[in-house]
Design a protein that fits this description.
The complex is a heterodimer of chains A (115) and B (114). By secondary structure, chain A is mainly beta. Chain A has no helices and twelve strands. Chain A has strands at 3-5, 10-14, 19-21, 24-26, 33-38, 44-50, 56-58, 64-68, 73-78, 87-94, 103-105, 109-114. With 114 residues, chain B is mostly beta strands. Chain B is built from no helices and eleven strands. In chain B, the strands form two sheets. In chain B, strands 2, 4, 5, 6, 9, 10 and 11 form a seven-stranded mixed β-sheet that branches. A four-stranded antiparallel β-sheet of chain B has the order 1-3-8-7, with no helix packed on it. The chains are: A mainly beta (115), B mainly beta (114). At the A-B interface, strand 6 and strand 11 of A face strand 4, strand 5, strand 9 and strand 10 of B.
């Protein structure tokens, strides 16, 4: 079974500093990886994905992620954090078994950005 | 841009009652997914449909059933509700194109079973 792991329950960063939210994956075959963000009492918002191609993927709201095959990682990054980035972030992997294959999520990392 | 619509947004039921959750995917999306998110947990996949046919099945209890209709909307039917069914239920939609494998999530239905 495919899985992702988010080793940090919470990440704290000061506004204006760079942020990294970590994710490692375990898949058979080529990984399809995603990052989602969830604000309180809201649905999950798609940030970015890695399917194939460049290892550095750019997404919404200034976020980017670096795919590293040798380290089986897909860390989410942003050069300069904003207080409004404070939310719950989920890494996810797509099962490659069909057209409507499920996403398997990590346990989530709460990002807290302070002034 | 149009998003995934879920109704109702909040639902309170008693044990052993039934509930029906509805999902309207983004226009031209032919694939619908249902997820359950318990308090403080990550979303867990329940079931998915592609072109009105069940495609993938996860940890969905036998008390739950779902279908996708000709207009691509989907309904999740939950019977004999238990306290443990209290959760946030998300619907997501996508196209079947490999280049668009990202799923777009609705705002969720918060189900409370008392």
């Amino acid at each position: 079974a495919q899985s992702v792991a988010q080793p940090e329950d919470q990440v704290n960063v000061a506004e204006g500093n760079p942020l990294t939210v970590k994710c490692t994956y375990s898949v058979s075959g080529n990984p399809y990886l995603f990052w989602y963000v969830q604000y309180p009492n809201r649905g999950l918002q798609f940030l970015l994905k890695y399917i194939t191609g460049d290892n550095l993927v750019k997404g919404s709201y200034g976020f980017e992620a670096e795919f590293n095959k040798s380290q089986t990682s897909f860390h989410l990054k942003k050069p300069s954090a904003l207080v409004s980035d404070s939310a719950l972030y989920f890494c996810a992997v797509r099962e490659n078994t069909g057209t409507a294959s499920k996403l398997t999520f990590g346990t989530g990392t709460r990002l807290q950005v302070t002034l | 841009a149009a998003g995934v619509i879920q109704s109702p947004r909040h639902l309170i039921k008693e044990k052993r009652e039934t509930a029906t959750l509805k999902c309207y995917p983004i226009p031209r999306h032919d694939t619908v997914y249902w997820y359950q998110q318990g308090p403080g947990q990550d979303p867990q996949f329940l079931i998915s449909f592609y072109e009105k046919m069940q495609s993938d099945k996860g940890s969905i209890p036998d008390r739950f059933s779902a279908q996708q209709f000709s207009d691509y909307h989907s309904e999740l039917n939950m019977s004999s509700l238990e306290l443990g069914d209290s959760a946030l239920y998300f619907c997501a939609s996508s196209t079947g194109l490999p280049s668009s494998y990202e799923q777009y999530f609705g705002p969720g239905t918060r189900l409370t079973v008392t």
